[in-house]
Amino acid sequence: MAQVVPVVDLRAANVAQAWEHAMRSAGFAVVIGHNVERDAREEMFRASRTFFLDRSPSDKQRFNFGAYGAPTGGFTAQGVEAVARTFDSADSPADLVESYVLTLASFRNSAEHAPELIAAGRKYVDQVSALMHKLHHLSARALGVADDFFDRFYDENASLALRLAHYPAINPSDVAPGQQRYGSHVDYEGFTILAVEEPGDTGLEVWLNGAWNKVSCPADGLIVNVGELITYWSGGRWKATLHRVVNSHPERPRFSLPFFSGPNLKAEVVPIGSPPGTRGILAGEHLQRQLDRSNTKPAKL
Questions:
Q1: Is the separation of the CB atoms in 43 and 123 below 8 Å?
Q2: Can you list the pairs that 215-220 forms with residues at least 24 positions away whose Cβ atoms lie under 8 Å?
Q3: In a 3-state reduction of DSSP, which class is residue 282?
Q4: pLDDT tens, 9-41?
Q5: Residue 28's closest CA among 178, 205, 183?
C-alpha cells in the first residue's frame, strides 16, 4: 500500500507550498532535512531503554509525581492512560504503554528526575524545540500571517513535553477486545514531532480516505502531525487526524519519542483572520478537558 502521508523536505525551495498541502490533505507529514541530529535521537532512545528495561517497576514508580499530564512530568505506569476515551467510548480499555514525560519544569527540577534521562533529554529537547519554531514560522507563512505569529504563544512557559513511550512486548492472549498499544485519538495541542526508533513499519496508523493507513518513516525522518489547537488556529483548514499505535510485532517492545508542542496554558487561541474581539479557547482549559477524559486518574495542570 502506498504511503498516504506526504514527505516534506524542509530544505526544498517550495517547502511552504509542500507543507500547506501536507497539513491540509493529511494533517501529517514525514519531514526530512530537519537538523535534529541522529546522535541526539539515538542517545535519547538509549537513555529511554535504560530507564524502562533496567529499572524495576517499583523503582520506576519512584518517579511518578501525579497523573499523566501533570506539569512536573515523570513516570506513568501502564494502565493509567486510555486515550481512545477522548474519541471513542468512555470505557475504552487502557493503553498498552508506560511512559516518562520530561517538561520544562522537569529540567528546572532535574534532581527529582531519573538522571539517565536528563542530560540526553536536554540535548534532544533543545534541538526538537528549534525544529518546532522553524515549523511555526513555516506554518505562519503558509497561513498568510507574519512569520513570528506563533512566537508570543510559545514563551518560557509554553506547554512543551517530551514523552518517552515504551510499548512492552505483549502476549496477544492477554489483550482485551479493542485494546491497542495506543488507542484511536487526535492530539490536543500544537504540532507533535515524533521520532521512531526503527525505520519502516512504525506501528503508527492514520485514518485517511475512509481507512486505516500504515505510516512508514525513513531512518532520518521525523513524523509531524497537527493537534487540535492548530486546527482551531487555522480555522479548520488543517485537520487534526485520527491515529493510533497498533499491536504489530507484539513479540518485541517498541520505543518512540513524541514531542508535544503546546502554547502557554494561559494563551487564548483565536482562529487566524477572525474579526477583532472574537473570543477564542483557553489552551489550558482545553488541555485539562482532554486529560480528564483520557486518564483513569485525574491530572491537574
A1: yes
A2: 215/3, 215/5, 215/28, 215/30, 215/243, 216/3, 217/30, 218/7, 218/30, 218/32, 219/38, 220/32, 220/38
A3: strand
A4: 999 999 999 999 999 999 999 999 999 999 999
A5: 205
Q: 183 pLDDT band (50/70/90 cuts)?
A: confident
Helical ranges in 181-226 per DSSP H: none
CA–CA separation, 68 and 3 (whole Å) = 32
Q: Where are the beta strands (DSSP E) in 147-230?
A: 158-167, 182-185, 192-196, 200-208, 211-217, 222-225
Cβ burial, residue 170 (10 Å; 0-12/13-18/19+): middle
Q: Give the DSSP H/E element, type plus range, for residue 293.
A: helix 283-294
Nearest one of 262, 225, 229, 228 to 245, comparing CA atoms:
225
Question: Do 260 and 192 form a contact (C-beta atoms < 8 A)?
Answer: yes
CA distance 194 to 202: 11
Place of cell 519519542: 257
DSSP state letter for 192: E
At 130, phi and psi to the nearest 5?
-60, -40
Neighbours of 297 (CB within 10 A): 11
Q: What is the CA radius of gyration of the chain?
A: 18
Strand arrangement, sheet containing 7-9: 7-9, 28-32, 222-225, 192-196, 254-264, 158-167, 98-103, 74-76
Q: Report the predicted TM-score, pTM, of the whole model to 2 decimal places.
A: 0.95
How big is the chain, counted in residues? 301
